[in-house]
What we know:
Number of helices: 9
Structural class: mainly alpha
Number of strands: 0
Amino acid sequence: MAEPTAPSRPPGFPEDLETCLREDACVRADANQLKLKLEEIQANAAQAREGTALPGRLLAALSRRRDGPSTPEEAAAIFARENVLRRQSQESERLLQHYTGKLDSHLTTYLQTAVPVFLQQSQARVWLAEWERIIADLRADLRELIKMLGQARNNAVAGYDKSTQMMSATARAMFAQSNGLIRSVDARVRQANAKAAELGNLPGVTIIPLEVTINNLTRLEIVAMLREFDRVVRELEMFEQKQLVDLQVPAVAAADALVAQAQAYLAQYREQLRAYYDQRITPTQIAEAIPLILERFRSG
């Protein structure tokens, strides 16, 4: 994504975004003023704490020389002021965090409309989630298929008729039922591949032709059937690991990287806009805006 450029004139933002930017500038300017006041009063308070531990005569002499508090009442007033400014600064910090989140929300909406690449990057994880859900459903169907094949195998061994060299009717029925799950797995694979093609840059899943293989198992002599069955199950287990689990790791990492790029772009653009709006608010505007902003903030 191209680097955002600092605007040279007020951009044509939606009114709610414009308002948020101006209020955010007022909140940050007020926070800076509070910070300076708190630092000053904290220095005075530290001096007062040192002085209140001294004998009265020495305290008076030092206070005259250092412009510190000359009476316990003055020291108490400084401590009270320090507490007030500390509480105000703590509230100001919460307000700053609130406006950063609010501004990011407005800017995200704006950029997703105005910058197509930002929309693609910021929504990468959301869009990937659709593909991940299909993969999760595919894995569930695959595990169910492996489970049913295992049950069919056990019934085939238990009910095998050596004279006819045929497995039991129950085992044959279970193998037949597995065809439904095989078709379900195949459909999920095609669905996953269609979604991967739609989103782009996602890996495809290999289709395994299992239906004919499973049907042929019922015609084999028991030893050959078990050997072939074990091979098929190993293939299915490897398919789940290599084609499904391992495929998600790089896909998720790539989506997360895109989201991170969008977030970095957003943060940089936000700070450039802040610098722009900082130059366009006056002390009068700050003094008028802050009480109203605080009232809304406190009322939730």
